């Protein structure tokens, strides 16, 4: 399916009612605080660093510290890494300080917490439960949703107690754990509605995109409109099991699928790499139902027991999401792809727990890489001619977020212009979709709530933009 061009328009910052672009305004790289201390003081004091650097540091320190390592997290306010240390080995503490992190004494090692999680998997794999390591409390946080009661509650409570004092704690969720997929708008397949995550280049150089695995197993082909002509075919999908991710390749190999996330109101953020998450890290989520939302990572290596089965290895956050957001992108302000929306409990009114498939794991499994294989880098030449000036000029402030300028015109050639496209692609035809999706989506608001846009259908092949954000 060939993709039509869409005209450029001026990017407009969302108004006070658009929560999403209040978040988008934050998508500016934070400057690292400068050190004024002497060299010796600076070497012993925790360094300020970005969340991306923190995740890399945590990964390396975990291997170095061995059994003394009790996990780590990122203090976003101070821009520092806090490393949990078991025991009083001074060499370990020195190693942590040399790395520029802050050492904190704790009781439970990462190995002990991992073993405890395995015990929970044996004793408490009950639909409606989830657990993840919370390094801030140095415990496993076990959550039971509203469906867990009676004998099942007793079972999970008993399993937590069996781990011993201080190893895990249990909390109740008012919602119900479920994958966030629903019939509606955005991308469609087999009566289901999901969101696109990130555009990728496959091993053979073909353009494709990542989305949730439970979307990939729900339908083999996906379109931009309800019952529309397919634009992509599922090549691989995992759900349930060791993740929740799917690779979909565009049926038209000439598709120019820009490596950006559409954050609504004509603005995009360039996605330049995939990165691992760090607890405490600030993240942003884009989905077809609720648009752009922000929050922080609260746990890693999470296990979720959905009604459909158990999924392991997920990221846990406090970012809200709703049905239809499944597969949508979780990313950072510096343009790092972090996760794909899997599921959780609650909604964007009451809040709740939300889980994401790590992008790095998904890419490794399907043999793909973030990016468009050059399509976006050439300005998205698809329809903008002078695309080089497009991104900065038409993204208004978007170039300041470190994303749009990298897109050149690619952002405007398709990615910028169809923020509503994915959301209102089917919203007009969806009936109820305008209620639960378009109004909440910053992009959809700009498109007249999608229903009146007619544009989603008119964007037609604007999948070069739709593929960015879901």
List the helices and strands and how they pair.
Blueprint: H1 19-24, H2 39-44, H3 51-65, E1 69-75, E2 80-86, H4 90-98, E3 102-106, H5 110-123, E4 129-134, E5 139-144, H6 150-162, E6 168-172, E7 178-179, E8 187-189, E9 192-194, E10 198-201, E11 207-211, H7 213-216, E12 221-223, E13 230-238, E14 245-250, E15 260-264, E16 267-270, E17 273-274, E18 282-287, E19 291-306, E20 309-317, E21 329-331, E22 336-344, E23 354-358, H8 359-366, E24 369-370, H9 387-394, H10 404-407, H11 410-415, H12 419-424, H13 427-430, H14 433-436, H15 442-446, H16 455-459, H17 463-469
Parallel strand pairs: 2-3, 5-6, 17-22
Antiparallel strand pairs: 1-2, 4-5, 4-19, 7-22, 8-9, 10-11, 10-24, 11-14, 12-13, 13-14, 15-16, 18-19, 18-21, 19-20, 20-23, 21-22, 22-23
């Amino acid at each position: 399916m060939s993709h039509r061009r869409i005209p450029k328009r001026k990017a407009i910052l969302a108004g006070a009612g658009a929560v999403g672009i209040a978040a988008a305004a934050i998508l500016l790289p934070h400057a690292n605080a400068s050190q004024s201390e002497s060299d010796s003081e600076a070497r012993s004091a925790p360094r300020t660093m970005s969340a991306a650097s923190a995740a890399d540091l945590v990964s390396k320190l975990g291997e170095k510290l061995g059994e003394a390592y009790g996990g780590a997290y990122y203090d976003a306010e101070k821009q520092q890494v806090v490393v949990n240390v078991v025991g009083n080995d001074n060499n370990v503490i020195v190693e942590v300080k040399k790395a520029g992190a802050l050492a904190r004494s704790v009781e439970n090692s990462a190995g002990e917490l991992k073993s405890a999680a395995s015990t929970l998997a044996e004793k408490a794999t009950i639909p409606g439960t989830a657990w993840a390591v919370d390094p801030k409390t140095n415990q496993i946080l076990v959550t039971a949703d509203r469906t867990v009661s009676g004998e099942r509650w007793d079972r999970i409570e008993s399993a937590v107690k069996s781990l011993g004092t201080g190893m895990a704690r249990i909390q109740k969720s008012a919602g119900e754990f479920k994958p966030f997929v629903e019939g509606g708008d955005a991308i469609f397949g087999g009566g289901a509605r999901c969101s696109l995550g990130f555009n990728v280049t496959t091993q053979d150089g073909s353009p494709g995109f990542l989305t949730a695995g439970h979307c990939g197993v729900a339908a083999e082909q996906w379109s931009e409109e309800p019952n529309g002509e397919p634009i992509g075919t599922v090549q691989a999908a995992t759900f349930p099991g060791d993740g929740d991710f799917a690779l979909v390749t565009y049926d038209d190999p000439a598709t120019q699928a820009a490596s950006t996330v559409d954050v609504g109101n004509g603005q995009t953020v360039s996605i330049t790499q995939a990165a691992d998450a760090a607890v405490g890290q600030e993240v942003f989520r884009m989905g077809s139902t609720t648009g752009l939302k922000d929050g922080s990572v609260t746990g890693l290596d999470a296990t979720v027991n959905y009604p459909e089965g158990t999924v392991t290895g997920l990221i846990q956050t406090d970012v809200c999401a709703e049905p239809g957001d499944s597969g949508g992108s979780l990313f950072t302000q510096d343009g790092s792809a972090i996760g794909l929306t899997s599921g959780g409990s609650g909604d964007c009114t009451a809040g709740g727990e939300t889980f994401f498939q790590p992008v790095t794991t998904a890419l490794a499994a399907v043999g793909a890489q973030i990016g468009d294989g050059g399509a976006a880098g050439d300005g998205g030449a698809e329809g903008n001619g002078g695309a080089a000036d497009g991104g900065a000029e038409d993204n208004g402030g978007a170039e300041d977020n470190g994303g749009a300028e990298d897109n050149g015109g690619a952002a405007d050639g398709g990615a910028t212009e169809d923020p509503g496209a994915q959301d209102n692609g089917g919203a007009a035809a969806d009936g109820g979709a305008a209620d639960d999706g378009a109004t909440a989506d910053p992009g959809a608001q700009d498109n007249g709530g999608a229903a009146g846009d007619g544009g989603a259908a008119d964007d037609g092949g604007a999948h070069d933009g739709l593929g960015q954000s879901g």
